[in-house]
């Protein structure tokens, strides 16, 4: 048998066990365990969350063929040992897995981040990747809930990010979270490709992926990113703008007001500017360019109203428009100018299902905030006590099958058929059925006609269910 590194990286013929125990692999296993313990103290990998992977540095073999060490999934990171690690080939196949530990430990499983880690290795030739659940990386994506980027400039710690200096603007792409980590692979890959200068990708309400050409660079940058996120959060709390060179008071679109709770919404927090640009490019009737920040208040309001009306007329089922709807509704309900109107059978059915122990969720194109406002201020009183949760278009369009897969995964049922979806829209019924859900169509006044032989059970009232 051949010996040494040549045999170790010949994946087609298997990796010899002696190589898996040699010094580079052994030291890399020990390093991952050590870093996991350190990052636990930083709050980055608590609750078994987060993960680390490092490419084995062995000068005796080509870099493209070097092995990869990854931390396992669902394991308390501060208690991991080198023997708990997985070893993968440069192509991502598992070469060595840890032995099971006795109860109460779960069976070993490679990190759910594996496919995302491999994208950083493939697309950026990374030497190490860190996935952190640090609170700073989560909160910073919530400050501007519709922004697809985090931006900051004129901060000393920016110099710790590869390719950046003090005067540069650091831009980190933000992708939307999903119920399962592996489902982020495609969007992370698209972000890496769209931002060739970035060494990190934020996941909204989740955390961050950071990579470098070595574990030292990955760790250094991860520390700098978390510092900058923490700084942005603190500056925001002080009413200061972290994204401008002066870091002066946060400027409002309307008249440059500082108060972040002003009655008139910041345009960027109400509608995504990219959506307006997209409508202009597609020639959507009524869409108009947005005036610059130094334009008068009346001109900005006029353009905002025009674009909102254009999106409504085009029946745009987009999250930012629904969020604006939620803001408007909140003001109306708080001032007792609005009341959520529901059919009589809805209130009766919700109470009956609640008494039977049946969990009820709402899935609407209206934002979750708008749903809570409607059901909390209905013509039959506060109905939220009968509801277990709310879904909106952040899980996907209601006429797309994938959205219902996402919901079934989020609810944690054994089978999608354990969920009954009730709708008055035929296309939604088809999409939900495609995901394996049970479906009933509710026939309501004003509904469009159903196709002949549509194959769905129908009801005239919820009390029939």
Task: Report on this structure.
The protein folds into three domains: 5-237, Class II aldolase/adducin N-terminal domain (L-fuculose-1-phosphate Aldolase, 3-Layer(aba) Sandwich), CATH 3.40.225; 267-316, no CATH class; 344-464, Rossmann fold, CATH 3.40.50. It has 15 helices and 14 strands. Helix 11 runs parallel beside helix 13. The chain is of the alpha/beta class and 465 residues long. Strand 8 and strand 9 form a beta hairpin. Residues 1-13 and 252-270 have low confidence and may be disordered. Helices cover 35% and strands 13% of the residues. It has a nine-stranded mixed sheet with strand order 4-3-2-1-5-9-8-7-6, sandwiched between helices. A three-stranded parallel sheet has the order 12-13-14, covered by helices on one side. The longest helix has 23 residues, at 215-237.
Fraction of helical residues: 25-40%
Largest sheet composition:
9 strands, mixed
And the CATH topology of the largest domain? L-fuculose-1-phosphate Aldolase
Give the assembly state of these chains: single chain
CATH architecture of the largest domain: 3-Layer(aba) Sandwich
Query: How would the global form be characterised?
Result: globular
Number of strands: 14
Low-confidence residue ranges: 1-13, 252-270
What do the pLDDT scores average to? 84
- SSE series: HHHEEEEHEHEEHEEHHHHHHEHEHEHEE
Quickly count the helices: 15
CATH class value of the largest domain:
Alpha Beta
At the fourth level of CATH, the homologous superfamily of the largest domain is Class II aldolase/adducin N-terminal domain
How much is the radius of gyration in Å?
26 Å
Count up the domains: 3
Give the end-to-end Cα distance, rounded to a whole number of Å.
70 Å
Structural class: alpha/beta
Q: What fraction strand? A: 5-15%
| Spatial strand sequence of the major β-sheet | 4-3-2-1-5-9-8-7-6
